[in-house]
What does this fold into?
Amino acid sequence: MKPFDFLVLGSGIAGLSFALKAAPRGRVAIVTKKDRAESNTNYAQGGIASVTSKEDSFDLHVRDTLAAGAGLCKEAVVRTIVEEGPARIRELMELGMKFSEREAPGGDGGRELDLGREGGHSKRRILHAKDVTGREIERALLNAISRQPNIQIFENHLAIDLITSRKIGQKNGNRCLGAYVFDKKNGRVWAFTAPVTLLATGGCGKVYLYTTNPDIATGDGVAMAYRAGATLANMEFVQFHPTCLYHPRAKSFLISEAVRGEGGVLKTIEGREFMDAYHPLKSLAPRDVVARAIDSEMKRSGAEHVWLDITHKPARFIMDRFPNIYQTCLRYGLDITKEPVPIVPAAHYQCGGVVTTVDGQTDVAGLFAVGEVACTGLHGANRLASNSLLEALVCAHRAAGTILSHPEPKIEATIPLWQPGQAANVDELVVVSHNWDEIRRCMWDYVGIVRTNKRLARAAKRIANLQEEIQEYYWNFIVTADLLELRNIATVAEVIVRCAQQRPESRGLHYNLDYPDARPEWAQRDTVLRK
Ligand code: FAD
Ligand code: SIN
It folds into this structure.
């Protein structure tokens, strides 16, 4: 048993920011399934959207967010997050975060923040650290955490399931008491207990065959919360980033939207610009529009990719503004200052998730969720670029504030120890990897950028069959990280399909050929699931 005051699952921007705020009030455990910096956060390129310039305003940022969200955002939540952004950004800078700067106008040698532009934003408002913003955020937060004696980080520890009062047989209500956690290095399962558990486990890109996300993004938080009885919403809204590098050796490398923000243009395989036929903002249209346009151009031409071309910009500017993208492409034999980059859309961001208030509260007592795992109502049917890091910062702060002003009761219950399975049949592990591939391919083929009722029904059937098989393995065999994650991607796939089947319209990121239009009566209506 490992008792703490706060249990934080995940060490991306959401988990780390929360831990720093909670630490003065108690002992914090951060449980994270790989190295401490490994997270979606670490790969964020474009930056953090926030109003910091005189030419910008909260109203404009709110308006852009609502427009991208296609009628499904919660306006009060949007306003809170937008308006509290600048204060949280200042805090991050005080912790040591270094954003890129440029020379201020006036010629007196003064400096100001260099603001980037991305799709759907009417103003330049993206604070960034060149094209490695996430790496810099993780560095700054982890550095601050290393000075906090109250915080203990458990690397290579994978949370298996939340421990709830209902699961251990208590009758009244449902309260989260902690989590069972698998120590990957020595194969043991520990019960971590705490009056407050924060899910900060990020998204689920790995549910799809092609994704910009690193391997950690297996939707564990959504799956665990669902099994624990929390309400989920809007999981059909999976954001496909339009520009993932298309190269046989590149597993999942993003070419930031900021490249289009600085003038990069999308072109067909024949080298023709095509976005003006789809949206007045052309290559900088909201992501759902751009991803569908690329998908449609690829289907029309039969090509395996389209091009992103920024060669008309000075080479020095490209190398200075996008050093990581430039160097990475160069390693794959592509010089982006001289030739266009082959790109394809890939699964990128989960707009739905565990339903929370803007303070991170779920409907399971003692369980909070912040960051990509949560569905606060900020993103609606389509997230505006660079709004997710902002959401994580603001909501982590608010969650900590709520918890500290209304402490959760101490745990009285006796927590049962984890019951391990007995069999370990190594030969059968091949089935686990086969099932991984099958789910990811099925989701890509049937539940991708363009959906139909028939494809969704087919996906539902296949996933149900796979789940039956997985359930058998889960209970009979000694747990492995691959098996636990497989169970989670299967659950998340099921949830995405069920939400998609609930929505009889096309809106934002959910496009169904059988209902090609949005239906007014479905605006402001979430698709909701509870076990
Ligand atoms: P993550 O940063 O993903 O952290 C999740 C953590 O949980 C990880 O530490 C992981 O190991 C851990 N974890 C997961 N499951 C378990 C488990 N079962 N047990 C223990 N630990 C677990 N957004 C922007 O706003 N601006 C950008 O420029 C931007 N660029 C992006 C570029 C890329 C390539 C990607 C993939 C995403 C980008 N996003 C961007 C999205 C943004 O990075 C994420 O939404 C955000 O970082 C999520 O933060 P988080 O703390 O919620 O989760
Ligand atoms: C990017 O840099 O294109 C990613 C931005 C985001 O996902 O918000």
Remarks:
- The mean pLDDT is 95.
- The first helix runs from residue 13 to 22.
- The radius of gyration is 22 Å.
